[in-house]
Amino acid sequence: MLFRDVQIFNGDCYRVPQCIQRIDHRATHGWQLRYGGTRLFSDHSNDGSGAEAALAKATRELVRRIATLDAPTTLQRAPSANKSSGLPPGISGPIVRGRAGGRTRDCSLAVLLPRFGAPAQRRSVYIATETTFTQAKLRAALKRAVAMRAEAEEAYRKAATRARRADGKVLRAMLAAGEFTRRPKRPLRKAA
């Protein structure tokens, strides 16, 4: 999990985990949690004196949500608007290829298989040769490609959730150790 140092309006500094944002706007001062929905944890003060307690509450809620919710992923859920083939995301084709020295060309679908923490793999699902191609064979190959992609997406989601939950355990230990308390003030930068 990533962390950053945040300086609030009164000059106090805090170490803040990702998914928590500082909100300082007119009469609103607090920490906003953005994981599985949003929730504001108010300072309940105009001088920022409640910021430390509010950050601790937001961090505890983040740990709770990480432990119970699946990790959010960036996998594409629907085909791109520019995709004209009508195939599901991660599947393209049919691709017609000719082999060196061969007389016939074969058709296949290209399937992109996402892997968490590693580059995606590209696999080919054979349909038929150019002379034996039928719509039934295309539908059968598409069914195999969709199953391959769904299996890879499920493995990706499980791995992402497992990694996020490991981050949640580290976050819980840091919270218990008092890592998210007020830090020494930094000098304010002057505008050039």
Tell me what the structure shows:
This protein is of the alpha+beta class and 192 residues long. It has 2 domains: 3-72 and 167-176, no CATH class; 91-158, no CATH class. The protein is built from 2 helices and 8 strands; from the N terminus they run E-E-E-E-E-H-E-E-E-H. It has helices at residues 51-68, 135-176, and strands spanning 3-7, 13-17, 20-25, 28-34, 38-42, 91-98, 105-115, 118-129. It has a 3-stranded antiparallel beta sheet with strand order 3-4-5, with helices on one face. A 3-stranded antiparallel beta sheet has the order 6-7-8, with helices on one face. Strands 1-2 form a two-stranded antiparallel ribbon. Strand 4 (28-34) and strand 5 form a beta hairpin. The protein is elongated and about 80 Å long.
Task: Give a topology summary.
Layout: E1 3-7, E2 13-17, E3 20-25, E4 28-34, E5 38-42, H1 51-68, E6 91-98, E7 105-115, E8 118-129, H2 135-176
Antiparallel strand pairs: 1-2, 3-4, 4-5, 6-7, 7-8
What's a quick, concise take on this entry?
By secondary structure, the chain is an alpha+beta fold.
Shape: elongated
Q: Taking strands numbered 1, 2, ... along the chain, how are they ordered across the largest sheet?
A: 3-4-5
- The portion of residues assigned to helices is 25-40%
Judged by helices, strands and strand pairing, the structural class is: alpha+beta
Uncertain spans, ≥5 residues at pLDDT below 50?
A: none
- Rg value: 25 Å
Q: How many beta strands in the DSSP annotation?
A: 8
**Biggest sheet layout:** 3 strands, antiparallel
Number of helices: 2
Distance between the termini: 34 Å
Q: What is the string of SSEs from the N terminus onward?
A: EEEEEHEEEH
Beta percentage is 25-35%
Total domain count: 2
What's the overall average pLDDT, rounded? 86
